[in-house]
Design goal:
10 helices, TIM Barrel, globular, 15 strands
Length: 375
């Protein structure tokens, strides 16, 4: 697929387009089959078509004593199983970088990605610098030593980092404003601990993300028009069963129809588990029937959303002479869609499948226009 495939969408808002996402984007360059989730590095994933990256960063320690070194890298393991080795409980750090507050151990069940955070950020920066119509979104969640992660983003990305000195609702921001930048998103609760927000001069590139799915109530959280970052509805299935993931994601996308139409939808086409080969399961997910299931699951979310909006926003619609309802201007039509499709082992072929869903969105609207339901 074209490296600059967002070029035709510059006048659209972010919540009007569909983009591929990379799950556990930094876990490549290793051999552990129950840990590895990608084959391509960040630059290669971006070139393949990925525009949203799931980043989980911790501090890896190498060596012992005075020769010890510490490096920020992607890790893959349930956060509850990660061991945090705090240096603050010791009288002194036995060696290495004295500024490192702690390092993490991901045990035999987990693993580390090949590149450092600095290397991955450099790859992202180089991509947007050479592809001015494209943007990359890097969502940092479940990170350790977040203050160091934020500092590294500022250090490496510099002017390529998307910044806004005022509140910026990314959902409703046009692609052309985001183009040529790396957008960095962080957990708002963690940013609050660091006392970082958009009013902080050097930290105005630290935008937030808000998960609209509420696992306790299963009712979408409220969408905020004045939100400094990205708001999305979706949930990782946490299963290694293809059928179970398909069922859960389908239900999730249907539930998304209850969201504000401006919310971003996030669909996971992944079967990551603690045991077995993630890559082998992933291959099965992209075979004929399951590939079609992805499209059907995505389309179900779109169709349900359109129907929900008709009932929600136009309960008493005007009708034409032949009793056909008229739902208003096509230019004003907006509905919840699965905007981001997350995957393991990103590739040009998979990204192409996902990016072509942009045509399906326009086709669905055109079908309504042709039937006279939209004017």
């Amino acid at each position: 697929m074209p490296e600059n495939y967002l070029a035709p969408f510059q006048s659209k808002r972010l919540n009007q387009i569909v983009i591929p996402g990379s799950h556990d984007a930094g876990i490549y360059g290793i051999d552990k089959e129950n840990v590895k989730t990608q084959k391509l590095n960040i630059d290669e994933q971006a070139t393949a078509g990925v525009r949203f990256f799931d980043m989980r960063i911790a501090t890896s320690k190498s060596g012992i004593g005075p020769s010890a070194t510490y490096e920020q890298r992607s890790y893959h393991l349930d956060g509850k199983l990660v061991t945090d080795n705090s240096h603050s409980v010791r009288r002194h750090l036995p060696g290495g970088d004295k500024n490192v507050k702690s390092h993490q151990n991901v045990s035999l069940f987990g693993g580390w990605g090949a590149d450092s955070l600095g290397e991955m950020l450099s790859q992202a920066k180089n991509f947007v610098d050479t592809h001015p119509t494209e943007f990359l979104i890097m969502k940092f969640s479940k990170c350790f030593n977040l203050e160091n992660v934020v500092a590294k983003c500022l250090e490496v990305l510099q002017d390529s980092q998307f910044k806004s000195r005022t509140i910026c609702n990314l959902n409703e921001t046009k692609v052309k404003k985001l183009a040529g930048h790396v957008i960095t998103l962080f957990d708002p609760k963690e940013l609050a601990k660091l006392k970082i927000d958009y009013t902080s001069g050097n930290y105005d590139g630290c935008l937030k993300f808000k998960e609209l799915f509420d696992k306790k109530s299963n009712v979408p959280r409220a969408y905020e028009r004045n939100y400094d970052g990205l708001q999305y509805f979706g949930k990782f299935s946490s299963t290694d069963k293809i059928a179970k993931n398909t069922s859960r994601q389908s239900a999730m996308m249907v539930a998304g129809a209850a969201c504000d139409p401006n919310a971003m939808g996030m669909m996971y086409w992944t079967t990551t588990g603690m045991f077995g080969s993630i890559e082998q399961r992933n291959k099965d997910m992209w075979k004929g029937p399951n590939r079609q299931a992805l499209k059907d699951t995505w389309a179900t979310g779109l169709s349900t959303s359109i129907q929900a909006q008709m009932g929600r926003d136009f309960p008493n619609v005007a009708r034409t002479g032949n009793n056909t309802p008229v739902f208003g201007s096509r230019r004003k039509w907006k509905f919840f869609i699965p905007n981001i499709v997350m995957m393991d082992f990103a590739s040009p072929r998979k990204c192409s499948t996902i990016s072509r869903l942009n045509d399906v969105t326009d086709s669905e609207i055109q079908t309504l226009v042709d039937s006279g339901m939209l004017t």
